[in-house]
Amino acid sequence: MSIILLASLVFLLMPIFLLLYVRSYNRHKKNHFVEKENMRQKFEAEILKTHIEVQEQTMQTIATELHDNIGQILSLTTLTLNSIHIPENEKVSEKIGNSLSLLNKSIKEIRGLAKILHGEQIVESGIGNAIDQEINWLKRVGGYELQINNDLLDLKVSSPDKDLIILRLLQEIINNIIKHAQATSIQIDAFIKNEILLLTVKENGIGFNYEEAKIKKVGIGLASIHKRIEMIKGKIDVNSTLEKGTSIFIEIPYP
Amino acid sequence: MSYFLNWVTITELTSLLFGIIFLIRDKSSFWRILILYIFLSAGTEVLGKYWGRIYHTNLAIYNIFIFIELSFITYGFYNFLKDYVNIKLWILVIYIATLIIYLGYFFIYGINSYNAFTVSIMSVVFVVYGLLYFFVLLKDENYVDLKYHAAFWWVGGVIIYYFGGTIANFFDNIIQQKFLGKYITRMIIYNTLNLILHCFWIYSFICRARQRKICQ
Known about the structure:
Shape of chain B: globular
Mean pLDDT of chain B: 88
Order of helices and strands of chain A: HHHHEHEEHHEE
Transmembrane segments (chain B): 6-24, 31-48, 60-78, 90-111, 117-138, 150-171, 183-206
Largest sheet of chain A: 5 strands, mixed
Low-confidence stretches of chain A: none
Order of helices and strands of chain B: HHHHHHHHEEH
Strand content of chain B: under 5%
Number of domains of chain B: 1
Radius of gyration of chain B: 18 Å
Strand order of the largest sheet of chain B: 1-2
CATH architecture of chain B: Up-down Bundle
Strand order of the largest sheet of chain A: 1-2-3-5-4
Distance between the termini of chain B: 42 Å
Keywords (chain B): Membrane, Transmembrane, Transmembrane helix
Largest interface: A-B, 20 and 31 residues
Helix content of chain A: 55-70%
Low-confidence stretches of chain B: none
Oligomer: heterodimer
Number of helices of chain B: 9
Protein name (chain B): YhhN-like protein
Number of strands of chain B: 2
Number of strands of chain A: 5
Strand content of chain A: 15-25%
Distance between the termini of chain A: 77 Å
Number of helices of chain A: 7
Shape of chain A: elongated
CATH superfamily of the largest domain in chain A: Histidine kinase-like ATPase, C-terminal domain
Radius of gyration of chain A: 29 Å
Organism (chain B): Pedobacter mendelii
């Protein structure tokens, strides 16, 4: 009888050992899984970094070309037009005057555009100034009632890498508002509190379904904002109500 | 009252209590049916005692319960295996085959003879299902934390119960007559296995409730 009991005990222990083996194997699987996940994230971060670097490089090239090439040609044209002396024909003189003013406007716009594209140069003077320049550009575009609270102008600390990403984030958000929001008023608040940079952008546009857009990954704008936030370990909160507008709250550890 | 309470009923009623606490709000029909199954299992035990007292044999009650056990545990394995492999047809064929053996036994020996043969076949089938479950679980590319994986603990309890009971099933005729001290050997084995099974199941209920809470 004790043999049957003993055999039963062995048969009882066998599945217990099997369960222990499955758990141990699963632990190895977990390590492998975590390792794989880390490698994937690292790879994605590298790709993203390269992508942003290439994008930045391209923008700088365009900015340089605009400033040094097209800008110079336009300046030369202005000089040439200025050098023409036609005292007797008033109409021609008026037309040349108009052309000159248009050319000057173009040069100014190209310089402004080149400045915005050349992110690294803008952030050299600090994130506060960079945001200010971006807002000035927005003022020039016109069509919006702006409410600005930029407390970053007198900021003593800086983080060039983060500054560039923050600037691009703001540019992306503003571009999205211009392209999709149909807003009439924009409020931008930028300040720093307990080593956290807080950037808030509110508008009164048509709004959108944020959760749906996030899941469906509609457009590259939103995805790009998320990727950039992820890169600098920041947080983003988007509250959007249809027909009422959208508020974006960004928190970034700073510097 | 105390006549109806023994180790098996106490274990099963405790398990039933935990089942009601942790699974009553579960959305999955399997986990809710499990409460009913444990209730029927405890009910069979009590009814078996009562039946034995009046008619001097309660084997018919346990024989009927074999059908419930075969059907529910098969359904349980189908429920967990279907996430990994398409095995519906196989499970159905094996279930029908076991059911034929189950009914065939009664045709030959009558309802008052304990159907240990079907129980043995059923045990082997469930052990194979359990092993298959572990195999597909480990083979699966996705990682699950087994510490809190309700299905793993449910299957773990079942595989220990049926694999551990293999010897007792094969020597059923011998061990039900033999005593170890004042206890019947069969009861020692089945009570121990039943206790382990329900401990594993109670833990799986807790895991399931935790999983549900996380998902909400």
